[in-house]
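Lecture 7 notes: from sequence to structure.
We start with the chain below.
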Amino acid sequence: MKVILTSGRRKTSRAKAILTEGKGRVWINNIPLEIYPIEMVRWKILEPLLLAGEDIVKGIDIKVYVRGGGVMAQADAARMAIARGLIEWTGSEELKKLFVTYDRTMLAGDPRQAEPKKFARYSARRRWQKSYR
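Predicted C-alpha cells for the same chain:
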C-alpha cells in the first residue's frame, strides 16, 4: 500500500497531509471536505484537486491535519500540503508546472510573517499619540 506524507506552512499554520490509496475522499481535521463549514476555505483547499483532474484524484484518500493560525492561513497550508502530495504521488513534472503557473504559493509557500509587537507601543508600528509639538 502506497502512503505519502507531506507538509505545508503559512504564517503560523502547519498542515500535514497523508495520501493513501482509496476512493477519492478528503478530510480536514477528521471533517469531510464536502461538509467543511466555511465555503471560501473549502474552495481554496479544493484548488489543487480540481487542477489535477478527477482521474488522478479518484484513487487517493487524503487526510489533512491543520493547526495554528487563522482560517485562511490554515486553508493555504492545507492546500500546499495537498499539492505537494499530489506531485509526489504522480511524479508528474507537468502537474508541477501547472500548479506553479496557476499559483506559485501552492508549492513554494509565502515567506511573509506578522511583524512582532515592539516594547511600549500598541502594535508593531503604531505609537502613542501626542497632542503637543
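Points to note: The beta strands are 3-10, 13-21, 26-28, 31-32, 60-67. Helices lie at 39-52, 54-57, 71-90, 93-102.
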